[in-house]
Amino acid sequence: MDGLYDVIVVGAGPAGLSAAIYAARARFKVLVLEKEKLGGQITITSEIVNYPGIESIDGTTLTDKMRRQAESFGAEFKMARVTDIDVSGDIKVVKTDKGELNALGVVLALGANPRMIGFQGEETYKGRGVAYCATCDGEFFTGMDVFVIGGGFAAAEEAVFLTKYAKKVTIIVREDDFTCAESVADKAREHEKIEVHYHTEIMQAAGDTLLRKARFRDSKTGEEWQYEAPDGGTFGIFVFAGYVPDTEWIKGKISLNHDGYIITDPDQMTDIPGVYGAGDVCVKNLRQVVTAVSDGAVAATSLEKYVADLREKLGIERKEEPEKAEQKAHAAVSESEDGEEFITPEMKAQLKELFGKFERKVIVKALLDKSPLAAQMEGFLKELSDISDQVECLVSWESEDTSPTETIPAICVLREDGKESGLRFYAIPGGHEFNSFVIGLYNVAGPGQVLSPEEAQRIRDIKKPVDIKVMMSLSCTMCPTTVMSAGRIAAENEMVHAWTYDLALYPELKERYQIMSVPCMIINQERVEFGKKSIEDLLNILETI
């Protein structure tokens, strides 16, 4: 059967990446599907200190190493959202927004999403003071008071992380004590900038356009107390109250417990032969990176005999397929942190191969002034310019042909004929956004990220001008999804502009739109949307305008 995979792994967090490493190393044909960003929830963790053999590492670096290891063994990666799965036959059919895929075995490493508590005002002030990612949004609360809601690992660890920015951190613990390891809790308890309130719950967040005050209740005494930001200012509420398993779409397909977690046997197999679970989505006592990678390894090795026996039963021979260009694009992620170069030799080799597959030339033009940012942009383009003839780099200075109405400095992505593609970057595409920039070039030059027929038609149906400003942070792991979604739509429809801003460089935009969380989109100068947005999410928004 053409296009048949031995193993499809759904989810690219530590569990899914571990399964991919083990399955691909066993010389199986492996595809990893991820709907948002490779690495999963652990990428928002700034410091991991309990992974055996590694004294300290951040989540993004760890999972990037895992992904590269899986690729080195031949695993393929594809950005696609799984919408359904047919497990009724020997061949499992995985249905995605990019089409249907077939596999002999499936590993469901679906992970979980941050849990909303449901206190009054939580939804209203999300992005305006209520946040869920310290790495992404901590900097916005520099010099302010911050409340952390929760008493587990994440709450204790992220509270300590937030002391780098906040004037004071107050942890609100519903129980009588922390529910994490004493060593982790002690770091929070003993920190000079942290205060802890036990058996306490948040009741309400309130304010005007920004968060101004919050109300709390002592569950033992019944006493209520209120915090109000001084001098008419604002403050932060970071919620770390656990996660909800991402299993709504597989209800009725495999057995779940009453909380929605996947039930597996000791080999990580579900009640359906050939379908395995791994990671935080499974019923388990400890949800940590070390147990996630263990689950992935067990699931993959258990699948080895199952897949081999099934191939023999069905008389299916293996066939090799070439690597996908989109996989190469996602592999070209910046690793340079020393400031001496933007694009490392390893990255240049990957980009040269990717650019060689472009269907058309793409032009990257920098509109520059005499600012330090412009000088950095010029240096970035110099490094980019000598990689491939398929990417032409140009520089236009303020005194040349830059329009007086244009905001500069900026990096503009132009089509082969010199016309604007709709993509601009008011930033140096570094950190997590280097990948977004490369994908943007790929989308303009073609063939671009795969769109479903329905998505392509919905993009064509946009008939009115749409201006999207994506506000991001280079440290944010959730921003690239939104940047790439906006850029993909702009590359397909000339009515849409997608301009990406590093919010650290444009504080006036933060003040104007009262942004306290990223990613944030400003649509047509008026509508403000917070949070990660897939192409489908963004199209749903644009169709209401």
TrEMBL record:
It holds the Pfam family Pyr_redox_2. Residues 318-329 have a biased composition (Basic and acidic residues). It comes from the Bacteria. Residues 318-340 are annotated as: Disordered. InterPro entries: AhpF_homologue_put, AhpF_NTD_N, FAD/NAD-bd_sf, FAD/NAD-binding_dom, Ferredoxin-NADP_redctase_2, Thioredoxin-like_fold, Thioredoxin-like_sf. Signal peptide: none annotated. Keywords: Flavoprotein, Oxidoreductase. Residues 467-537 form the Thioredoxin-like fold domain. Residues 5-296 form the FAD/NAD(P)-binding domain. NCBIfam families: AhpF_homolog. This is FAD-dependent oxidoreductase.
